[in-house]
Amino acid sequence: MTVNLMPTAVVIGAGHAAGELVTRLRDHGWTGGIILIGDEPSLPYHRPPLSKDYLSGLCTAASLLIKSPEAYAKAGIQVITGTRVLRIDRQAKLAHLSDGRTIGYDKLALTTGGRPRPLSVPNTERAAQAGNFHYLRTMGDVDAMRRQFDSRMRLVIVGGGYIGLEVAAVAIKLGLQVTVLEAFPRVLARVTAPELSAFYERKHREAGVDIRTGVVVSDLEMDPSGDAVSAVLCADGTRIPADVVVVGIGLIPNTELAEAAGLAVDNGILVNEYAQTGDPDIYAAGDCTNHPNDRLGRRLRLESVPNALEQARTAAAAICGQLKPYHVIPWFWSDQYELKLKMVGLSQGYDQLILRGSPDTDSFSAFYLKNGLTIAADTVNRAPEFMLAKRIIAERLLVAPEQLADDSVPLKSLLPPT
């Protein structure tokens, strides 16, 4: 057992939230010990480039690191990699590790993230043991994929969300034959309007991707050796030959540790506006949390880097006794080809869509309105309008639909001076 002679903060998980949280603890005056524990072999690293520049070979593993080893050492942060936390004993304030160690804590933060949602078909488990079947969540996942991204290969992607489309954009540039299978009637159906879905479907088809919507995968065909997937089988009887298969159909939050410790869990670890769980000495941040959003008047779980970073900052401040509630407008981004999509707000429940500019120009914005108020916006290659949209939504500014639609008038001129 590790005996701590000073107050110790233990952070479980090693993603964006963890990397931000440990550093912010020092910034907020935490003078005790800080221990970061992650089950991957690497230090915390940036995940968004995994399906983009890292997959395409444009950046290295070292360049993905959120902070250098020297930065953690300088801040007095002990980092334990390649080790899982098996159990949390809240009564004794102990974390039991897979390597046999037991570490005591005064404050604990759960930044356990999530894992890919598995494909639910009969041969999934057999396919998972095959070398050409992949999910995408970690650097190791992408390393395995990259070794098979040869221009002669037929790639089948299951899932037409951000991950699936980003992988498709990289793969088609590398010369692979790419097919995307989406169960919904359109790609990006959960997050954007039909107009945006149609735009992205058109851009991918123009690039050479075979996009098929309304397609339900029923099984995976294994080759005679049983060591590789040879085809993806669809419910309508279609058989799609495959040399490589990538599945991107969502994320499951890693809440098992919290649940086993008796913490409240409901589609994520339940936290308050200070990222605090029901245990006053345990906090949580990132993809694994379900937090209250005062602007929406309900709880939600977000899977985004900005959310992980901001919530980690809130948690670090609260651990140090500085209560700064987390009230941030959600935002996301996706890079596909030369298209930079930035999204702010949540569009569910909108009753009017306003397009500003034409999708034919590859530079436009879409504003989602509900009862005349802008609740979300998608911008494609329009970074300045994205920043203005963030302000419109955050300040609940009323901008008339006809003004939003008039691309000849600068959006900034429609807003009150700051």
Automatic annotation (TrEMBL):
Q: Membrane-spanning regions, if any?
A: none
CC cofactor: FAD
Q: Which Pfam families match?
A: Pyr_redox_2, Reductase_C
Q: Where is the FAD/NAD(P)-binding domain?
A: 9-312
Under Gene3D superfamilies, the record lists: 3.30.390.30, FAD/NAD(P)-binding domain
Tell me which residues make up the Reductase C-terminal domain.
Answer: 331-415
What keywords is this UniProt entry annotated with? FAD, Flavoprotein, Oxidoreductase
Q: Which domain of life is it from?
A: Bacteria
Q: Which InterPro entries match?
A: FAD-oxidoreductase/Apoptosis, FAD/NAD-bd_sf, FAD/NAD-binding_dom, FAD/NAD-linked_Rdtase_dimer_sf, Reductase_C
Protein name (Swiss-Prot/TrEMBL):
FAD-dependent oxidoreductase
